[in-house]
Amino acid sequence: MSVKIFDSSEVQDFLRLASGLDGKAGSARAKEIIHRIVSDLYKAIEDLNITSDEYWAGVAYLNTLGARGEAGLLSPGLGFDRYFDMRMDAEDESQGAKTGTPRTIEGPLYVSGAPVEQGFARLDDGSDPNGHTLIMHGTVRGADGAPMPGAKVEVWHCNTKGFYSHFDPTGEQTPFNMRRTIIADAKGQYRFQSIVPHGYGCPPDGPTQQLLNLLGRHGNRPAHIHFFVTADGHRKLTTQINIDGDPLLNDDFAYATREGLVPPLFERTDEASIKANGLSGPFAEIEFDLTLSALIDGEDTQIVDRPRLAVA
Ligand code: MBD
Ligand code: FE
Q1: Fewest Cβ atoms closer than 10 Å to its Cβ: which of 7, 164, 236, 259?
Q2: DSSP H or E segment with residue 265
Q3: Are residues 201 and 272 in the same domain?
Q4: Shared domain check, 240 and 147
């Protein structure tokens, strides 16, 4: 088809009608957004001559995406999560805001309600047969660089199969395995024992991977550990660290790797270190400080409200 009708008054009036812009009821914001997005799609259909078959394949795809619960997975895969971070970074820069530890995306696998521990937590339940012990620790610092006793460090990561508790298709993990909230101690320090995670891969038979295949892309992430960090007078930090040396460090399907978020990992094999940590064998150690940024005009401009799985 080569006929062009998008710019006609018939189509433009129709877009306004279908978006509810002719009436008073409903939400002005929803109308504005839907009108823009539907208009852009109509235009794409015309410009790219998207066929009926292609369109209906897309509709069926959306049904599958929802049925499989993967909308929040396709989102980072198409870079939307990273794009929102780019926008926040640019906004901070334009305001001359002093930032701390770089932010990076939350991802779709946080669960609220994890056990709360003071200063130190053991994250894993000890059941992963391939688990290599990890000790990770650091200081939570405020915008002025001073340690922040009482800061809340929420941490979550996956096991050596790349599966997260509460989202594990094998059903093998106990609730909140590798998920904890750690309250920084009197020196502002947090510390945990866990196992070194493996990278994550999208479900190979799922709709996200199906679309990535069409783009000639893989659906894997390098090994990483997620954090939310909150403290009085500061903006909530959402970030991750990567496990150094992972082959996908700079080839993350979710685009979350950032400079400053790949701390060195040290293999400790000496008896003194093993003993000092109450362990029985070699382990990996990561030290990483988490530095928060101040509220902007009293506001947390980087807090994100999104539906999250909450488990009591
Ligand atoms: C993850 O573990 C993750 O962190 C992201 C961003 C997407 C999919 C799985
Ligand atoms: Fe993750």
Answers
A1: 259
A2: strand 265-268
A3: yes
A4: yes
Which one of 78, 81, 221, 226 would you pick to mutate in the ligand 1 pocket, going by the greatest count of ligand atoms within 8 A of its CB?
221
Reading the chain (312 residues) residue by residue, the pLDDT tens digits are 899 999 999 999 999 999 999 999 999 999 999 999 999 999 999 999 999 999 999 999 999 999 999 999 999 999 999 999 999 999 999 999 999 999 999 999 999 999 999 999 999 999 999 999 999 999 999 999 999 999 999 999 999 999 999 999 999 999 999 999 999 999 999 999 999 999 999 999 999 999 999 999 999 999 999 999 999 999 999 999 999 999 999 999 999 999 999 999 999 999 999 999 999 999 999 999 999 999 999 999 999 999 999 999
* CB of 76 sitting under 6 A from ligand 1: yes
pTM, whole model, 2 decimals?
A: 0.97
Q: Compute the distance between CA of residue 110 and CA of residue 103 in angstroms, rounded to an integer.
A: 16
Mutate to test the pocket of ligand 1, among 200, 218, 224, 255 (most ligand atoms within 8 A of CB): 200
Same domain, 24 and 64: yes
Q: Domain containing 87: what range?
A: 79-310
CB 244 within 8 A of CB 199: no
- Pair (269, 211) in one structural domain: yes
Query: Among all ligands shown, which has an atom nearest to the Cα of 253?
Result: 1
What distances in angstroms separate CA 54 from CA 48, 50, 61, 227, one per listed residue?
Answer: 11, 6, 10, 40
- Domain CATH code at residue 118: 2.60.130.10
Q: Which ligand is nearest to the CA of 203?
A: 1
CA dihedral sign, ordered 165, 169, 170, 171: positive
Q: Do the domain assignments include residue 2?
A: no
Cα 151 from Cα 183, distance rounded (Å): 6
In a domain, 4, yes or no: no
- 108 & 246 share domain: yes
Q: CA-to-CA distance for 278 and 36, rounded, in angstroms?
A: 59
Distance (Å, whole) CA 134 – CA 310: 27
